Amino acid sequence: MHRVRTSLPFFEQYGWIAEVVTVDVLYTDMVQDELLLQSVPSGIKVHKVKAFDKLRSSKLGLGSIALRSLCYYRKYVNKLLSNHHFDLIYFSTTQFPVCVLGAYWKKKFKVPYVIDMQDPWHSDYYQDKPKDQQPSKYWFSYRLNKYMEPAAIKNADGIIAVSEQYITDLKKRYPQIKDIPAATITFGMFPPDLDIAVKHRAEFKPLLNLDDINVVYVGRGGTDMHKAITPVFDALAHCLKADPAFFSRVKFYFVGTSYAPAGQGKPSILPLAESLGLTGQVIEITDRISYYHSLATLMQADALFIPGSDDAKYTASKIYPYLLTRKALLAVFNPQSSAIAILKDFGISTVYDYNNISRQHVLDFLYALGGKPHLQISLSEEAVQKHLAQTKTQLQCELFNLAINNDRL
């Protein structure tokens, strides 16, 4: 959603007029953020489709918004393609089952399509994990994805991905796409978002105690992040014993860690903190919050923390709004994660992999916060320009141009 939203102001500048087809919010149970509409240009056509009622469809195992809306997308877009000319269909969503319609529309209407891989679709990552570490309904989703991914990918005319490894894996898995246009394009920085968050920050419920030294992470949790979090928690536990007067003021917040409905999420970070004696220093809020509430909370923090997944392919899209705030940033990733190079490109020195971070690194980072409240960091202007949403939109459009001339219809 954010990829398209932050690209809409720039598509026409690079030769493309976009229309959006999305599910009406009446049919979703996700956190709503009407402020997102403020960044969408007024001239953009937005088409809304229905979805089956979740209470009823969940009884059949079809609770996801992608599966509930699939036939409505098919019917609505059939009418659009029958009555109007479109050069390309662009799937930019993590609700991947919708992408299977690309092959159908391509065959029926001769319109090419591009898929944006913001996450892996079919993956064996959780196959060897204990059941309590697997996503909800993993048995069903694994088998569904194993069937749906090839149906969508084999006929695609272009692939965009946030991680180069996603493209490599797909081309290895499906030789049919080895020659189609593909590009690694991360999400972009979108400065207007910060202005919107500042303008409306009084409307959001405060989550932090501003008398503390607050280090904040907003995003999903999961045991796959424990390798990145453990060395930081270990250092904090050690520092707490060495200097309790200072470090008792340090609080780590993990906000919006569960995809479960509000009030039903299970903590995935707090158990790790408790095992290291950090119950009083770590606050986990499982309920998701809106995007601009997230930004406002990040701006209230003294510093930000980004723990990466132990999956080497993982690229944290959230790093760009984090960087927008120019807050002091501590990040820990898998040694092979592309996020490390990206952050270093911006001039962030406090980014580590979980094999080279030390207690001293964490201690120095936290002590700096105590001596310089509201510490701001400077970023490489060259990197900022390279990673602006406008620049990323241009790259998308360049791939679109290749895809429509790919002769795979």
UniProtKB/TrEMBL annotation:
It comes from the Bacteria. GO terms for molecular function: glycosyltransferase activity. Residues 71-175 form the Glycosyltransferase subfamily 4-like N-terminal domain. Transmembrane segments: none annotated. SUPFAM superfamilies: UDP-Glycosyltransferase/glycogen phosphorylase. This is Glycosyltransferase subfamily 4-like N-terminal domain-containing protein.
